[in-house]
């Protein structure tokens, strides 16, 4: 049952039911802010916004300077310094624009609510003139015409910010784009497997069932130039299983790539390149801590879970005359994240 008050626009259907129509409540009463009534407050906020825009400009300049003056280099310290300075400067560049613009809009620009009724799409000439005048009034109300320093600082910050992105891209022009070098590592026939990071060669007799060893090529620690790049490509995880648990230790061509239950796989995840090193002895599963890709060590490190799309590359190994574990060759496919083509030659 519904009731209708002829003196009201509200129709009520009954207790607990919602009305069909509501009276227009109108606009809320406008409450002026401190900056609206106190010129000193407005001037203080203007200085704050100017400082933030200037901070953004300095941050962008800092990104460009750090990119050229502080290259990553070859050592962890130089890489850390370069990344920290670039990151801090880029943060200042972004935060200065974002916080400064937001502060200006919330405190200095007009916060009055305006109502404009809808009309036909093509307004009359008189209405169009009124609209143009309203835009002019809005621009005047925003105070931009009276705050030239803010306009200049804001536009400069916005104009300079793209340099923080473009300069690193331009700086890479002419660099080494030969991706073929990522298809091969320093592993080769006869290279002994050594402990990481000590570099001590490993004998097969030292590895017992259930053991997990972090491995690098013997001689890696003697390298100087490019040492980090070579290690990043060549790191290996060595595991010994009961040979009866191995579903396969052979290559697709039928070659034996393990030795008496000992198998070796690249530690570089085939998803995005994180180090895969969490081994579950009972299930023989190898877990990547970044995105939980899981590989079955007992079955050629095939993917059993997660976003990785291909198995970890296996390093063919055997033993030499002294009983040390050695590589039969390099990996037979590129290590690391999958990319557009897989040919190794």
From TrEMBL:
Membrane topology term: Multi-pass membrane protein
Keywords: 2Fe-2S, Cell membrane, Disulfide bond, Electron transport, Iron, Iron-sulfur, Membrane, Metal-binding, Oxidoreductase, Respiratory chain, Transmembrane, Transmembrane helix, Transport
Stretch list, region Disordered: 1-39
UniProt domain Rieske: residue ranges: 233-326
InterPro entries: QcrA_N, Rieske_2Fe-2S, Rieske_2Fe-2S_sf, Rieske_Fe-S_prot
Compartments (UniProt record): Cell membrane
Any Gene Ontology CC annotation: plasma membrane
Main location: membrane
Annotated transmembrane regions: 49-70, 82-105, 149-171
Domain of life of the native organism: Bacteria
Any Pfam family: Rieske
Record keyword Cell membrane present: yes
Family, per entry: Belongs to the Rieske iron-sulfur protein family.
Reported function: Iron-sulfur subunit of the cytochrome bc1 complex, an essential component of the respiratory electron transport chain required for ATP synthesis. The bc1 complex catalyzes the oxidation of menaquinol and the reduction of cytochrome c in the respiratory chain. The bc1 complex operates through a Q-cycle mechanism that couples electron transfer to generation of the proton gradient that drives ATP synthesis.
Protein name as catalogued: Cytochrome bc1 complex Rieske iron-sulfur subunit
């Amino acid at each position: 049952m519904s009731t209708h008050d002829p003196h009201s626009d509200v129709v009520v259907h009954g207790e607990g039911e919602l009305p069909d129509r509501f009276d227009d409540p109108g606009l809320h009463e406008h409450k002026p802010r401190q900056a609206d009534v106190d010129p000193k407050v407005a001037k203080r906020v203007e200085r704050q916004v100017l400082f933030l825009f200037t901070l953004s400009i300095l941050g962008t300049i800092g990104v460009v300077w750090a990119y050229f003056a502080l290259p990553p280099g070859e050592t962890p310290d130089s890489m850390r310094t370069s990344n920290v300075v670039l990151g801090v400067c880029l943060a200042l560049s972004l935060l200065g624009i974002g916080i400064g613009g937001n502060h200006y809009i919330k405190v200095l620009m007009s916060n009055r609510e305006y109502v404009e009724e809808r009309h036909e799409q093509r307004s009359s000439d008189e209405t169009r003139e009124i609209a143009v005048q309203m835009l002019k009034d809005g621009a005047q109300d925003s105070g931009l015409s009276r705050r030239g320093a803010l306009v200049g600082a804001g536009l400069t910050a916005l104009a300079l910010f793209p340099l923080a992105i473009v300069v690193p891209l331009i700086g890479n022009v002419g660099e080494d784009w030969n991706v073929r070098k990522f298809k091969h590592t320093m592993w080769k026939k006869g290279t002994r497997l050594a402990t990481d990071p000590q570099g001590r060669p490993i004998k097969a007799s030292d590895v017992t069932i259930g053991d997990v060893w972090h491995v690098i090529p013997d001689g890696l620690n003697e390298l100087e130039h490019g040492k980090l790049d070579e290690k990043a490509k060549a790191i290996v995880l060595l595991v010994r299983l009961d040979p009866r648990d191995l579903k396969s230790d052979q290559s697709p061509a039928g070659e034996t790539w393990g030795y008496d239950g000992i198998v070796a796989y690249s530690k570089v995840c085939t998803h995005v390149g994180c180090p895969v090193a969490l081994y579950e002895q009972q299930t023989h599963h190898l877990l990547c801590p970044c995105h939980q890709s899981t590989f079955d060590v007992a079955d050629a490190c095939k993917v059993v879970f997660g976003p990785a799309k291909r198995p970890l590359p296996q390093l063919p190994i055997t033993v030499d005359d002294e009983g040390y574990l050695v590589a039969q060759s390099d990996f037979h496919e590129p290590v690391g994240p999958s990319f557009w083509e897989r040919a190794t030659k």
